[in-house]
Amino acid sequence: MTxxxxxxxxxxxxYDGRLAGGHLALVLAGWDAGWTSRCVSIxxxxxxxxxxxxxxxxxxxxxxxxxxxxxxxQALPVDAITIAVPGIDGFYASALDDLLRTQGRTHLLVxxxxxxxxxxxxxxxxxxxxxxxxxxxxASAPLTTDLEAASxxxxxxxGGIFGAIGTTPAVLRALQxxxxxxxxxxxxx
Length: 189
What we know:
By secondary structure, this protein is an alpha/beta fold. The chain has helices spanning about 35, 45-60, 95-100, 115-130, 150-160, 170-175; strands at about 25-30, 60-70, 80-85, 105-115, 130-140, 165.
């Protein structure tokens, strides 16, 4: 079955329609006290990220939070794997790529704190490594509102040079389990 997240830009994400738990990971960049304290507003992005974590976990997806430069990771309502990263890019000198590849995760929802820094850098690096990426814009807290729109727009340039962008409500609708149809049996008289 082919499933896409509604309303993604610039293409229907994921491009191959394989939105299954076994391929999916939610990567929360900047998910630590250091990045959180620098963001202008985190309430709505954090609510969205937590909703995504619950949905991805329920579908059998992997939830990963990145703790940059030794900062304590923020809590989530599900069990999440914490990866310590020494820099801004979540893949740089960390176990993130090995974890995703050994777990067979090819499709990434990317969000977190520091949209124009930790989130964007991790997203670009993931795309360069061949992952199918969706930046979940409303689950990403910017450091400044001045660069928020430009950071999202950069992802969509050249037909999706770094992936696609979408929103939490659309992702949550796409992640809803497909009901199994039970064949009806005639009732006895």
